[in-house]
TrEMBL record:
GO terms for cellular component: cytoplasm; endomembrane system; membrane. It holds the Pfam family CNH. It is found in: Endomembrane system. PROSITE patterns: CNH. The lineage of its organism: Eukaryota, Metazoa, Ecdysozoa, Arthropoda, Crustacea. Residues 18-289 form the CNH domain. InterPro entries: CNH_dom, Vam6/VPS39/TRAP1, VPS39/TGF_beta_rcpt-assoc_1. This is Vam6/Vps39-like protein. It comes from the Eukaryota. GO terms for biological process: autophagy; endosomal vesicle fusion.
Length: 780
């Protein structure tokens, strides 16, 4: 088993001890040694400026016991020492030079082992106090005591066992007992639970990791259990069965054969093997900084295991790519908060980079996101995605691996998540617009490789920051000519876009072949770009007069070209293709007439829609027919007409969904849901990206669309996050309406009750009428 690095440095503090060491314990910089000859000695241990250990004998008692001292423990809070010698428990005073005897627990005659449970508590008045409980194994019984008034008192009846214990350890409100053949969990209530066998050696060995976790030895394995005796994590394995075991967070230290071995529990790592001559005992003292000072002893020597500074251990762990354990060490680092956090961020960043190198992109991206990593660093992991002007500014701890082709799909996920973070700007990206440009350009490259249907929505976004130069370059390389024209048009490079269309109009294998792409482009330019319209519309007008005329009169919907100055257009047509002047004027005139007709149908109340509808042609005037259908309340038929024939989503939105009838209530909200579900496809069934349109409808006209019906009608692949605003507003509106109705209902019931009371009161009044009764109102 190969060691990773040195976590401890063994320093001898007591050599060639003239007596035979039988047991040791330590506390507050003091080391207490019990010998086979019955001597008890206490040493103070300090480290000097050279990190060497100095040991001084404070006190000793040669007549402490007539028999070997087999076990000792100290309770510094109460200044007492508990010893096991001659099979009996004794309590001694630590404040006096020769450890005088305070008391002997006569009931413990025949004791083989004991353990203390020391707890620090806070009273209701805020005062700190320490409770001490003692469990003693006496033959085949357990005895329980508590400390009070300078002596131990029994607080539980003795519990009988199947065999004589060899070791025992407190575990919450229970005791784990190591017998010859097995381990048992014994509750203070008397309930006993068998855990598992001790193994071949029949030498039980235990140590406490925390109040809720123990390490129990079984042959060459260390098993970790909780207070219920259940295994809590993976087992730890040793070369041979340990003879002693302690825990110094985060390390498990064991005496194995002729050496001391150091391992970690989580993750399981073999850290170090320390060669020491005949080690036998392990103990530790808790220092003032709540750290442990570990001691190792043989029969005649004692060493201190001085921890190597964590600042030295962490780089060795990073070199071995043990990032999880390095983070655990960083948490234990006695350094200022800022330095500790910087070290942890450095470790996690290296960990994320390691995930990426191992093609664990989800793990890498999760860490990068949590660390708020600079966006350029993340995108730079894919060198072909980074704009050339930024590529040289990014450096990495190791060479970035080349990804196989089947991993390219992870790019979209990576950049999508990275674009959502709000990281601080690095020196390589000095402004927010630069950062956004890198993100959007990277998204464009990812979409081109993974899902090119998302390219157009990205370019159409109002706040899209795709780099002009880089975007044009990658779109040309991917032969996405339509998307390239869209980018140039959005960025206002009309001359370049129209020149590009002109060149490709003559290439039969191009998706832009023919004159129609040029016509569609020119129709969208508007009156501010008349120069471009006249310059690049002339060749279409000459070669394809009928389609060229559509540049100025539009297709089925003339709204795109309505704002063009007619006088200038007419002059250009006369100059370029004189024969089209009359058709242009007639089309313009017809458009004016239709506008008047539509206005009349919408506003006037002096006609019967059913009578007029009979005279409308079935192959023309579809929009006017839809208006009449709306007046008749046939909204479903009108919707179908708009969607199947007019194919204009915004026209549907503005002229059908929001239309109200003079004679009826506004267009029912139940008609908004078919609209939402129907606009996801065109007449020919091809999928089109109308998510933005649907979101606009739901956002701006939510009061006219039924929530339940709309959610049922929406496509399954729509992003529910984008519907959050609509759903919240609809629910608030419905809740408000319900509360208003409840208030109105309550008020109505009150008014009804008052009316009934007045009626009942009036009916109870007695009125006498006779021939002499005179009406006070009508009498004259």
């Amino acid at each position: 088993m190969k060691a990773m690095y040195d976590a401890y440095e063994p320093l001898p503090i007591l050599e060639k001890f003239p007596l035979q060491i039988e047991t040791i314990t330590a506390y507050d910089g003091n080391l207490v040694v019990g010998t086979k000859q019955g001597h008890l000695l206490m040493y103070s241990i300090n480290s000097d400026s050279t990190s060497r250990m100095k040991i001084n004998l404070l006190r000793s008692n040669k007549n402490f016991s007539r028999k070997p001292i087999t076990q000792i423990a100290v309770v510094p809070e109460h200044q007492i020492l508990i010893s096991l010698s001659d099979q009996m428990i004794s309590i001694h005073d630590l404040t006096v030079f020769n450890f005088p005897l305070l008391s002997t627990l006569q009931e413990t005659k025949g004791a083989v082992a004991f353990d203390l449970d020391i707890k620090h508590n806070i009273s209701l008045t805020g005062e700190a106090f320490v409770t001490v409980r003692l469990v003693v194994a006496v033959r085949r019984k357990l005895q329980f005591y508590y400390w009070k008034a300078r002596q131990f008192h029994s607080f539980e009846k003795d519990l009988s066992l199947n065999d004589t214990p060899k070791s025992l350890l407190w575990c919450g409100e229970a005791v784990v007992v190591g017998l010859r053949y097995d381990y048992w969990l014994v509750q203070l209530t008397g309930e006993q639970k068998e855990l598992f066998a001790t193994g071949r050696s029949q030498q039980p060995l235990m140590t406490k990791l925390s109040d809720n976790c123990l390490a129990v030895e079984r042959d060459e394995k260390t098993i970790f259990i909780d207070t219920d005796g259940k295994t809590v994590c993976n087992n730890l394995e040793w070369k041979e069965q340990p003879s002693a075991l302690i825990y110094d967070e985060p390390y498990i230290i064991a005496i194995v054969s002729k050496s001391v071995q150091v391992q970690s529990q989580n993750p399981i790592l073999h850290i170090q093997t320390i060669d020491i001559e005949k080690p036998k005992f392990l103990t530790y003292a808790v220092t003032n900084k709540n750290k442990k000072q570990v001691f190792v002893a043989s029969a005649t020597h004692i060493w201190s295991l001085c921890p190597v500074p964590i600042s030295i251990q962490i780089p060795q762990l990073l070199a071995a790519k043990e990032f999880t354990f390095a983070l655990k060490l960083a948490d234990l680092w006695d350094e200022c908060t800022k330095s500790k956090e910087n070290m942890k961020q450095h470790i996690e960043k290296l960990h994320a980079f390691h995930f990426f190198c191992q093609h664990d992109f989800v793990g890498a991206m999760k860490l990068f996101y949590e660390l708020n990593t600079d966006i350029l660093f993340v995108i730079g992991l894919y060198p072909d995605l980074v704009p050339e002007e930024y590529r040289a500014r990014v450096s990495y701890p190791h060479p970035v691996p080349v990804l196989p082709e089947d991993q390219l799909k992870m790019r979209q996920r990576l950049t999508k998540e990275s674009s959502n973070q709000t990281s601080t700007l690095s020196p390589s990206v000095k402004t927010v617009p630069q950062k956004l440009q890198i993100i959007d350009t990277t998204l464009l490259k990812c979409y081109l490789k993974t899902n090119d249907s998302l390219v157009v929505p990205l370019l159409r976004m109002p706040d899209s920051r795709v780099s002009d130069e880089e975007g044009e370059k990658v779109l040309r390389q991917a032969q996405k000519y339509q998307e390239l024209v869209l980018l140039l048009r959005i960025r206002g490079y009309h001359s370049r876009a129209l020149e590009f269309l002109l060149r490709h109009a003559k290439k039969e294998d191009s998706p832009l072949y023919g004159h129609k792409p040029t016509v569609q482009y020119l129709q969208k330019l508007g009156p501010d770009n008349m120069k471009h319209i006249f310059e690049y519309g002339s060749w279409v007008l000459k070669s394809f007069p009928e389609d060229g005329l559509k540049i100025f009169i539009g297709d089925d919907d003339p709204s795109e070209v309505e704002s063009l100055p007619r006088t200038r257009v007419l002059g250009f047509i006369k100059k370029t293709q004189k024969s089209l002047a009359i058709p242009y004027l007639s089309k313009a005139k017809r458009r004016e007439v239709r506008e008047k007709l539509q206005k009349f149908l919408k506003v006037s109340e002096h006609y019967t829609a059913a009578t007029i509808l009979v005279h409308f042609p079935h192959n023309d005037l579809f929009e006017e027919r839809a208006i009449l259908l709306g007046r008749l309340g046939q909204h479903q038929v009108a919707l179908k007409l708009y969607i199947d024939t007019l194919l204009d989503v915004y026209l549907i939105l503005l002229k059908l969904l929001l239309r109200t009838s003079r004679n009826t209530s506004p267009c029912s909200s139940s008609h908004g849901s078919p609209l939402v579900s129907s606009i996801a496809k065109k007449e020919d069934g091809r999928e089109i990206n109308y998510e933005v349109v649907i979101f606009d409808i739901l956002k701006n006209y939510w009061q006219r669309i039924d929530l339940a019906q709309a959610l049922k009608s929406l496509p399954d692949d729509m992003n529910i996050q984008n519907l959050k605003s609509y759903i919240l507003r609809s629910l608030i509106h419905l809740t408000t309406m319900q509360k208003d109705n409840q208030i109105v209902r309550g008020l109505s019931q009150v008014i009804l009750h008052q009316a009934k009371s007045e009626l009942s009161s009036t009916q109870m009044q007695k009125i006498l009428l006779s021939d002499k009764t005179v009406c006070c109102v009508h009498f004259i």
